[in-house]
Amino acid sequence: MKFDKLQYNSGYRAGDNEVRSQDPGDFFYRVIENAGLVPFRLIFGEQPGEGSYSDVGAGITDLLGVASGDFTEKVFESMIEKIVPLSEDTPADISQAHQKFINGEIRSYKAEILVKTTGDERKWIHYASLPLIDEETGKASGAFGILYDITGSKLYLERIKEKEDEYDRLKTDLLQNISHEIRTPLNAIVGFSALLGEHIDIPARRKEYLDIITRNSDHLLEIIADIVEISKIDAKMIKIRKDKVNLNSVLLKVYDQFRAEASGKGVLLSFEPEHDTGEADVYADWYKLTEVLRNLVENALKFTFAGRVEFGYTVKKGKIEFYVSDTGSGIPFEQQARIFSRFFQGDSSSSRRYSGTGMGLPITKAYVELLGGEIWFISQPGEGSVFRFTVPYERVVDDGIRSRMVI
User: Fold this and answer.
1) Cα(282)–Cα(267) distance, integer angstroms
2) Phi and psi of 122, rounded to 5°?
3) DSSP 3-state assignment of 291?
4) pLDDT tens track for 290-328
5) How many C-beta neighbours within 10 Å does residue 13 have?
6) Are 318 and 406 in contact (CB under 8 A)?
């Protein structure tokens, strides 16, 4: 049965709202309006913004304060304050979207639009349309779509977002307070344990016990610090503070921190700078950049028992690409997809070989993204891993002037 042969009849009378039509288009218009939506048909003009709306639903007056006969593309565009496209290939500008309709580049348009009505009231509306195809040319000559008010739902979602942000801030404040209260006695425990261990004639067994207290206290402090930090990240309380940073100095600092540990394990630790010291000055957040490298090198050493750990950087296409490679145990294939998940550890058993909170890599990934970069890795079980991450290359030239270099 063909669509144009269908007949629609409600089968009952409802006063002025009786539906009795042989025209499917008219029937669907009535259904759309009955649902509280505003249907429209737009015929494109010769130039963008010169189109005319026809068959506009009567609800347009309540929605925008404009009579259906006065509603034109130019009038509508003059009301628009902000457009939020709902798909990646959709342009924010409606005129551009209509041109893409004509060119056949997109098949639909969906966006949330903030408008200022003729009564100076701001409303969020949902705008959705499909192209109307001219049978002779095969190109879009207009669009058919609907408009409806989403102001209430937008405001509701904003209030929920505000409450979530407030909850995150309160949670972070609470954790910081708890952290302070726990750190104070823990620092006392660590300090006095160190003092007790300074006695020359202390029995070996007692010294071993004091070392256990110190190590585990330090580990507990690390856990607390990581939990507080990830809470700050969730609450968007972490700020980027860029200043002049020498990349080679950052590498040297990380190397100095871990060379004794590497030497003790018989692992060769080395770093490879790309530029001379004078050319390695960039604008970046020194603390976060150092922490990212520190976390990755620490992880590499933790899982490497022979061979080497190497780190460094190169500059390419306007980005600094850092790397940390090791000849360690590698990451099992089945675990690689979860490596940046919070609290994830390759061995979660109570007798696991490696210590850690499972928060180092998630914090590292968050820092890299805050710095405007990305992080990835390749790993072969039994052979080792290579972690890489990027940050924007903003080189310092001539007395601290910032320059975005494209290499």
Assistant:
1) 31
2) -90, 130
3) helix
4) 999 999 999 999 999 999 999 999 988 889 999 999 999
5) 10
6) yes
